[in-house]
Amino acid sequence: MQDHEEFNAEPLSPQFIERLNELTDEEAENRARALRSGLEDFDLEPEDLDVLDADLNWDDQPRYLPALPVLAIVGRPNVGKSALVNRILGRREAVVEDKPGVTRDRVSYKAEWNERRFTLVDTGGWEPDAKGIDLSVAIQAEIAVELADAVLFVVDAMVGATSTDERVVKMLRASGKPVILVANKIDDMRQEPEAASLWSLGLGEPFPVSAVHGRGVADLLDATMKMLPKISAVAKEEFGGPRRVALIGRPNVGKSSLLNKAVGSERAVVNDLAGTTRDPIDEQVELAGRIWRFVDTAGIRRRMHLAQGADFYASLRTAAALERAEVAVVLLDVTQPISEQDVRIIDMVLESGRALVLAFNKWDMLDDERRRYLEREIETDLSHVDWAPRVNISAKTGRHLEKLVPALEIALDSWDQRIQTGKLNAFLQELVMETPHPVRGGKQPRILFGTQASTRPPKFVLFTTGFLDPGYRRFIARRLRETYGFEGTPIEVGMRIREKRKRT
After folding, report:
1. Bridge partners of residue 140, in order along the sequence
2. DSSP assignment of 326-340, as one string?
3. pLDDT higher than threshold 90 for residue 329
4. pLDDT value, residue 2
5. Which CA distances in Å does 155 have to 89, 184, 345?
6. Longest dimension (CA), the chain
7. For range 250-264, the mean pLDDT
């Protein structure tokens, strides 16, 4: 059986394009109505009906899903935060070692409990600096709390409350955020009295849990869901006015230089001390006759003895900038090889659902030999974002800065784009006829109906009779791009498997 990953490299057939172009809007809508009525023979959930009703009542305005609530897990090193993260996620995602200061590549994860979805932030990677651990922990926790709707404060119940714990408690009280105190490492009932001493922290009743064994975690999550809002108050997607652009990238790629050149003044100051700049810098900028609001994440540089902590701060501020932006400009230094950190930052943009533009900075310093290596690196490391507009610039001199504007406009237009339901279902029918899903276990899943659930970013929901292979869903996404563009925006193709209603 041919793997559908191979189909990604094949261009659309002329017959496929011709059939779609010949189809009138009325014919496409008639097809969609027929498919929609066929869903009445299947068992649908209430949420399915909500999606379908929204499809019928679409008002042609850009749509986006409400921002998921954010739950931060804070606590001093080695109290079991990552173990709790893994327990909540139900998989080994965060790195766990029996020593403090272990740095994770990612600090945020999508989680779910009792059909409630939320974003989980793991505040790992703290530096056990003997001189300033209290201050370091408090600063890091404060940043995480600022970006959260609610907090799980984890304490090692077998050690008890320390002076560092008490310092973080003061910050938590000042934040005004709802907090649940988690007494971790209570592995059995005999150890539960150890949690009682944590009442002294003044955060209410401690929840005794064992993150490693899972004991008490379900009760903890039940209480957390009551405390967590359904829609985030800190990650609200507020759109209107100038389009908001996040300038992100690893340290020293030229983010501040780009902002300063665009503004025409020394607006951003880069400080050598990680963690001193608390808020991303916002600045209104005029480029090519249009007003934009740039969000800069400068102010973070790597210090060798605080490298892990600096990376953590940079990750949090990148996440904060993305929450406030509509499109991200990821700057890459062409004089340096594309790094794992560059790819990780791009992946953060994809996870955030923001539009994406790649800006290759310091282009005026590129020689022929480095150019050849760069093209190879782009092909190897950035193939998963080959749909993102690319701009070659020099932030220091301002060379080709104006080329950012058409790239931003293309990405944002794609981010706002909606495909009419009739055309989408006609596209799906033609696609399945040309390239059907492989038979799995003697059955071939069918696509019953498709709808675009939202824009910003475009998200599609397919009602199916069986599981669609991930490779086939990626194949559908690539064909959507080839047919309708979507240049510069991530797109999501989800599915809802529904069985035929039994006759009574």
Report:
1. none
2. SEEEEEEETTSPPPH
3. yes
4. 44
5. 20, 6, 31
6. 74
7. 76
Q: CA-based Rg of the chain, rounded to a whole angstrom?
A: 25
Q: Any idea what DSSP says for residue 162?
A: -
Report pLDDT digits (tens) over 443-499: 889 898 888 988 889 999 999 988 988 889 999 999 999 999 899 999 999 988 888
Report the distance separating Cα 27 and Cα 31, nearest Å. 6
Q: Full-prediction pTM beyond 0.85? A: no
Tell me the per-residue pLDDT of 334-367, one tens digit each, with 9 for 90 and over.
Answer: 999 999 889 988 998 998 889 999 999 999 888 8
**Residue matched to tokens 């020593």:** 99
Position 396 pLDDT exceeds 70: yes
Distant-in-sequence, close-in-space partners of 97: CB < 8 Å, separation ≥ 6: none
208 Cβ contact list (under 8 Å, min separation 6):
157, 183, 186, 191, 192, 195, 215, 216
Q: Match 């609200």 to its residue by tokens.
A: 236
Q: Which two tokens stand for residue 61?
A: 């305005």
Q: Which residues, in sequence order, are CB contacts of 91 under 8 Å at separation 6+?
A: none
Report residue 350 as tokens.
Answer: 């994809």
How big, in percent rounded to 5, are the helix, strand and coil portions of the chain? 40, 20, 40
| DSSP letter assigned to residue 378 | H
Here the tokens at position 19 are: 């059939």
Which domains can be identified in the chain, with CATH numbers? 4-63+418-497 (3.30.300.20), 70-227 (3.40.50.300), 243-403 (3.40.50.300)
